[in-house]
Amino acid sequence: MDRDRPIGVFDSGVGGLSILRALRAELPGEDFVYFSDAGHAPYGEKGEHFVSRRSLEIAVDLLEQHRIKALVVACNTATAAAVHLLRSHHGHLPVVGVEPALKPGAALTKTGRVGVLATRGTLSSAKFQTLLTSLRHQADFVLVPCDGLAAAIEAGDEARVRELCRRYTVEVCCFGTGPGEIDTLVLGCTHYPFAEATFRELLGPAVQLVETGQPVARQTRRLLEARNLLNPHGRGGVQWRTTGAPESLQAAAARWLGLVERPAAGSGDDDLKLAA
Ligand code: DGL
């Protein structure tokens, strides 16, 4: 049955776990395959052509190896580069993308000023520029590309994460709830919610942090419902794939999702081939 098949979720690395966490909460009866392309990360500084090629290869792999019934692109950079290509190459497959939460940010701000942290690839994409233009009349957005931050989160290098969070929040300048200050910060890369405690410590309790996990999970539910693809028999299981080190993905899944399954299934030869 199509409904019994898993949902594919991919990212350049562990960032997409912030989306998977929301998906599992919203859709506890679904099974998932999580694909971390850590062997080719970070995407944010690699350029659009590279990221779209990887996204297309990963989608084919997930369809062929796991017969996924839907695909969640749990990466802002890959969504910006490739979601249109994924939809046109796989017309039958429901594809859900992720984009920086500018609209929720504009709705939440009281000062009318919103900071946006994302990868260089996301911020320079045509898709993001279109979104920004459509919302310019609603708020003033201050954009800062965060080179190195996703990689530091991926590596679990807390000192470097802290240093970069400090550098980039200083660059956004100036946070607060007074007139002309930035009271809302959009975390426009799926890795960044895993640095939330650091941002919170640097910015204090008054600044609102906005991420996209829940809206993406709700959109996935809507798409599955509309196509009668909700799984009546799933167990909330996750199969793991990675082009990087299985132990790193396992450690991240345990730390952030409380999952202890071994993320080794399917890594190895298949992914070496995929990496070629
Ligand atoms: N997590 C990804 C995103 O949402 C990409 C991070 C990276 O590999 O640069 O943009």
Care to describe what's here?
With 276 residues, this protein is α/β, with parallel strands linked by helices. The chain folds into two domains: 2-98 and 214-257, 3-Layer(aba) Sandwich (Rossmann fold), CATH 3.40.50.1860; 102-211, Rossmann fold. The protein has twelve helices and nine strands. The chain has helices spanning 17-26, 48-66, 76-89, 102-108, 120-123, 126-135, 149-155, 158-172, 196-203, 213-226, 246-257, 269-275, and strands at residues 7-11, 32-36, 70-73, 95-96, 113-118, 140-145, 184-187, 208-210, 238-242. A five-stranded parallel beta sheet has the order 4-3-1-2-9, sandwiched between helices. Bound molecules: D-glutamic acid.
